[in-house]
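Narrative summary of target 7.
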Amino acid sequence: MQNTIITAVAPTRICDVGGWTDTHFARTGAVFNIAIYPYVEVQVHSLPATEMDARLVIDAENYGDTYALDPSHIVYDRHPLIEATIKVMEIPQDVGLRINIFAHAPPGASMGTSAAVSVALIGALDALTQKHLSRREMAALAHSIETKELGLECGVQDQLASVYGGINLIRMRLTFTKITLAFLLSVGGLGWRDPRCRKSRSNA
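Modeled conformation, tokenized:
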């Protein structure tokens, strides 16, 4: 594989009108939110695994934490959401990666930052692995990582806001696959087809 840099961004959100009616225990609900800047930005630098001392290096810039991770034996201990997303996306064996993650919104700001991190990372790794996930599939996968892989409680509005962007009225039924977007004013939602998920070659 040639040296490649992939950059993906995903918006955070405000408003959260109707929050927690988008969870499995609410059964039905409706949420209004607005996807906004500040974004989460993920940059994935890929190169042949033989050219790296460690096959996978994560730089969680907001925490000042850079560390190596063994993709064949991932333990969720330092940044579980990031680590779980990498595991689920199944990085090819012959690829070495340096992944930089930066959130322009501070952690714990109640702006859906965690979902934006997961969506942006899925988008970048989807471009790398060429899985060609749809935006809906990306939202479902990001939600599944939090709820099934990590065992956390969360609704679905944050993931949908991050992949579609815009001003959203989201109506939900019991299962995620039956979620309908009743109203969407797109301002350039983020997904694998979006021009803001871009790939370039590195001469490094």
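The first helix runs from residue 80 to 89.
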